[in-house]
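Here is one chain, start to finish.
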Amino acid sequence: MNKKRLVFDVEFAAENWDDFDEITQKDLMKRVPDKETDPAGYEREMEYIKEQLVFSPLTGFVIAIGVYDIDLEKGAVYYQDPTSKRKDEEIDNIKFVPMSEPEMLVKFWALAETTDEFISFFGRRSDVPYLNIRSAVHGIRPTKDLISNRYNSSKFPGALHWDLAELLTFYGSAMYKGSLHRWCRAFGIDTPKTTMSGADVGPAFAEGKGFEIAKYNVDDLKATAALFYKWDQYLRERF
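Its structure:
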C-alpha cells in the first residue's frame, strides 16, 4: 500500500492593533519607552510590536493552508478571501478554495487523518503549534500529533513529520541556519520569494489580495517538495 505524503505550508496575518482591548494593548506595551520622554524609541518599539503580532496565535490568525501530494503532484490551498468574490477553481492541478479560518482548519485535520507522512519547512516550531492553538480557539481538535517524535523514531507512535529546517541543520547541531529562500538558492531550486515574502503577506491580506497569497503559498509548497527530494536523495540515512 502506497503511503500518502503531504507537504504543507501555512500563512498567517495579524489582528488589527485598534481591535485589541485596552488591557491587551497595555500588556503588549509593557516595555515600550515613554512617548513623551523618548518619542523615537516609542515609535520604534511600537512598530516592532505590531510586526511581531503575526507570529503569535494569540494576536494573529491563519489565512491560508496549502497541501501538496508530492507523489500525485496535486494539491490545494484553502484560503481566506477578504473580497468574498472568489469561487472554487483549479489551476495546474492545484485547487484554490476560499474558506473561513475554522473551515480550513477542519479541512486540514480531516486530510491529516489519512496522511502517513508530513513534510514542511520549519513546521514543527512554527506552523503546527500555530495550527494547534488556532484550532483549539475554534473548538477543533487536531487529529495528528505533528510536534512530538522530533527524530521520527520508528519506536515512537504518531505521525512522521519531516521538518526540513531541522533535518538540513541536523536538528540544530550545525553552526549554520538558513531560510527556505537560501536553501533553494544553494540547491538550485526556483525560489518562491521573488514575487512575495512572508513579510508581504499581512499587508497583502489587508489589501484584499487573498488569492495572490494563495498562489504564493503554492510556490512555497513546490519549493519545499523540491528541497525534500534533495534531502531524500543525498542526505537521508539508508538502512
